[in-house]
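Our consortium's second objective concerns turning raw sequence data into structural hypotheses that experimental partners can test. To show how far this objective has progressed, the report includes one record in full. It was chosen at random from the queue rather than selected for favorable results. The single chain below, 369 residues long, was entered without modification.
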Amino acid sequence: MRDQTSLVADPWMLTLARDSRGWTQSELADEMTRLDGSRITQGYVSRAEAGRIPVRDGRVQLFADALRYTADTLCRGSDTAGTGVGLVHHRKRASLGAPALRRIHATLALTRLQVDSLARAADLHRNDRFRRVEVNDFDTPADAAETMREEWSVPAGPIEDMVALLEEAGALVVVRDLCTTALDAVSQWPPGGYPLILLNSRAPGDRSRFSLAHELGHLVMHAEPGEARVQEDQANRFAAEFLMPHDAVLPELKPGIDVSRLLDLKARWGVSMASLIRRAMDLGVISEWHHRTLIVELSALGYRTNEPITIRRETPRHLAQAVTRLEQLHLSPTETAHLAGLGREEFHEIYVCPSSPSGHKDVPDSSAR
């Protein structure tokens, strides 16, 4: 820990921390006022984030208490900590607004800082089996998916555990409540770094698996920004082939598909009924008209919003192993949480026992110090 007399907040980290909580400057000022008792204005927060006034010592701690990060987190230099968002991929719906996306990007940046600290302290070993795969007029996203399955020695047929597969290849996967249902996953692979995927705990298991495959497609195919719709379509096609390789799934689709058959296939392949219908159309098993008919039938049954058959949620293990290793080094739960810059309760929820969303509203909590 730093000497408390030497605390100086980094303005960018102040902004990043606030964005990650989804707060406006006024909301942060109100929470600081509540904690401190003296009047903190939006203007003060604005000047602090712009770097026009230094934030030192006790004021750093006040920001930290309000934002529920450690003071050390707010004092990290953004230039050396690697907190720039950079190229970020996400599987999202059009309804996701700019403030929510800004919050998620900030959460991704801070999560990278957290897992860096944990992995370094625990000396966590990771494989390095990710590589870029070029996609062009001749080499398709399906070809890229087939290449990755072959290189990673994925057995023919359904993938048993997508999270385990990605972790084994060298990615770090973190399940978090992203406070929206309009985005299922977000990922980033910076130069010289490792792939990091945030998976929304609000997404059901079948959608999570497809989102992981979708993000994998982005990570290996898209090293540079491109036309969003084109890259999204490529990532979807990659994911479909990666999860449902044509040689294996085609014989199971060819006998014909109806709702009853789709239920059986969903249980076997771990993907949604809607994904199976789309896969059948793309492989030429059913016509576009038949595809629309089946989608209408799913809607009439209420399956478009809540499909039957629950696919098991897959749980990351590598970071939990890092936490266990730190415990073996005799770090207390609070000390381990502070390594990641978090309070004990939030740290436990994210890194020790990731699960379905807690359902609590993201409200100020002054207990995380």
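The partners drew two points from this record. The longest strand covers residues 183-188. The radius of gyration is 22 Å. Both points have been shared with the crystallography group to help prioritize constructs.
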